[in-house]
Amino acid sequence: MSRQYDVLIVGGGVIGAACADHLAGEGHRVALFERGPLAREASWAAPGIVHPVHPWKYAEPLPSIFKVAMRAHPPLVEDLIARTGIDPELRRIGLVVRGGAADRIESWWNGEVPVERLHPGPAILLPEACAIRPPRFTRALFEGARRRGAELFDHTEVRAVEPGRVRTDRGEFEAPQVVLAAGAWSGRLRDEAPTVPVRGQVLLFEGELDHMTIYETGDYAVPRPDGQVLFGATLERAGFDARPDEAGFELLARRAAEWAGLDRRRIRAAWSGLRPGTPSDLPYICAHDGLVYATGHYRAGFILAPLTARLVGDLVADRVPEFDFPLPSSGRFLKEIPADAPGKLP
């Protein structure tokens, strides 16, 4: 006998977590399913930079929407702390952009935020840019969803996603609305939402930096409040193999030393995650043939999570969403990673 809910969410990363918390807050009876531990795939490996790395590389309307999405974080974090007692550690620590990207990002902001020119250049500092601690953010979202009545089914394999129904190894669940938010695995569950895993490897160093930094190669360094620094990340087509490897480790260790002065002898950990790429590099946030899609966020899951949850709330309630990202038309194919892509393995 199937179990009945208002909304079923397939996927337990940051997008699924944000949707579960938001939808439960709107009074829906929510069930969420994740094939492994909650938020241990791409969301676990994310650096937590609440700023797009190369916004001009995305098609409109996404670059403009990034700015709207970023402003949604402070009020959500304040609300989560009040409701759950968990601090996602949203910190205004500033972002340094070096190399040719500096001029592009300054032009993209077009005077909307403070920008300081640094020397030697080209380099800029965005003093108001923020970082968030990904594991703490997702934990706060899941705890918020639980306290609002959502049921979270981790270590639950989803075998089929259909309008009104999700089939799992724990049985069948039914609801008027089903949300597909399974990241890189979404394309395996629904052919009309093609996604491809793009592996990103990350190193954790013992060390300190004053600001987050994006380097000319496209690599980034993110200081954490516990005296450690994240440095990443590679872009690799490795299928669904999320294991770090020696080639990625060596590439990042070399670039971390060259660009950020981080000593490889102070490496404390290495990990990787599978970003959900799409044919257009745009996410799918739409309703189509009886399902709601919230997937394919690639490198922008944490930036877009609060806004995505709001848009999904509109779609579930049959309200007209502020923005819409449809599924690709037939005949489109997944793009290859360019030969000169930042972080691509040689």
Please, could you describe this protein's structure?
The chain is globular. The protein has an eight-stranded mixed β-sheet with strand order 6-7-5-15-16-17-14-18, with helices on both faces. Strands 9-3-2-13-20-19 form a six-stranded mixed β-sheet, covered by helices on one side. Strands 1-12-11-10 form a four-stranded mixed β-sheet, with no helix packed on it. It has nine helices and 20 strands. The protein is α/β, with parallel strands linked by helices and 346 residues long. The chain has helices at residues 14-25, 42-45, 62-70, 73-84, 101-109, 134-147, 186-189, 246-260, 301-316, and strands at 3-4, 7-10, 30-33, 91-92, 95-98, 116-117, 123-126, 130-131, 151-153, 158-162, 165-168, 171-174, 177-180, 196-206, 212-214, 220-224, 228-232, 267-277, 284-288, 291-295.
Task: Offer a concise description of the structure.
The chain has helices spanning 14-25, 42-45, 62-70, 73-84, 101-109, 134-147, 186-189, 246-260, 301-316; strands at residues 3-4, 7-10, 30-33, 91-92, 95-98, 116-117, 123-126, 130-131, 151-153, 158-162, 165-168, 171-174, 177-180, 196-206, 212-214, 220-224, 228-232, 267-277, 284-288, 291-295. With 346 residues, the protein is an alpha/beta fold. The strands form 4 sheets. Strands 6-7-5-15-16-17-14-18 form an 8-stranded mixed beta sheet, sandwiched between helices. It has a 6-stranded mixed beta sheet with strand order 9-3-2-13-20-19, covered by helices on one side.
